[in-house]
Amino acid sequence: MKKGTKKAFMILGGIGVGFINGFFGGGGGMLCVPLLNKVLGEKTKPSHATAMLIILPISIASAVTYVSSGYFDLKLTLIVGGGVIAGGIAGALLLKKLNSSVISIVFALLMIAAGIKLAFFS
Questions:
Q1: How far apart are CA 13 and CA 28, in angstroms?
Q2: 69 secondary structure, DSSP code
Q3: CA-to-CA separations, 67 to 55, 59, 84, 98, in angstroms, rounded
Q4: What is the dihedral angle through the alpha carbons of 46, 102, 20, 65, rounded to the nearest 10 degrees?
Q5: Are 67 and 89 in contact (CB under 8 A)?
Q6: Is residue 54 packed enough to be buried (19+ CB in 10 Å), middle (13-18) or exposed (0-12)?
Q7: What number of CA atoms fall less than 13 Å from residue 86's CA on the CB side?
Q8: For residues 88 and 65, what is the distance between their CA atoms, to the nearest angstrom?
Q9: Residue 36: phi, psi to the nearest 5?
């Protein structure tokens, strides 16, 4: 892929990831990982790790918007937030240990399961 084309994909992909994360309140990573891995040719583990760092500021910006609009529950945030932090640490540690093929399969299965749930059970 030419340097200019790759840069255009990165910019447009970033806009798409930010929009999805802001619109749905999450999910940008599900778009970011395949963008980095399959479209831009990055390796599996760096794609997942990079997606996490990309999603952090997007999530903060989205959260500020939601809070300022009155869509915020402090009690729920504190309860769920603890689990999210613990799960994030566990997931990051596990990412280092698993084979890239296993990570790709688990990620694909998770995306399929999420799609099925949204399509048939929401």
A1: 10
A2: T
A3: 18, 12, 19, 37
A4: -70
A5: no
A6: buried
A7: 6
A8: 23
A9: -65, -45
Q: Which strand (E) or helix (H) includes residue 73?
A: none
| CB-CB neighbours of 27 under 10 Å | 15
Task: Please name the residue that has the structure tokens 């995306």.
Answer: 111
Angle between helices 44-68 and 100-120 (to 10 degrees): 40
> Any idea what DSSP says for residue 98?
S
Over the stretch 15-42, which tens digit does the pLDDT of each residue have? 998 888 878 877 888 889 999 999 999 9
Structure tokens at 96: 């280092």
What predicted TM-score, i.e. pTM, was given to this entire model?
A: 0.72
User: Is the four-CA dihedral 111, 112, 116, 119 of positive or negative sign?
Assistant: positive
User: CA 1 → CA 39, 40, 55, 70, 87, distances in Å?
Assistant: 9, 8, 25, 44, 36
- In total, the chain counts a number of residues equal to 122
What's the one-letter identity of residue 116?
I
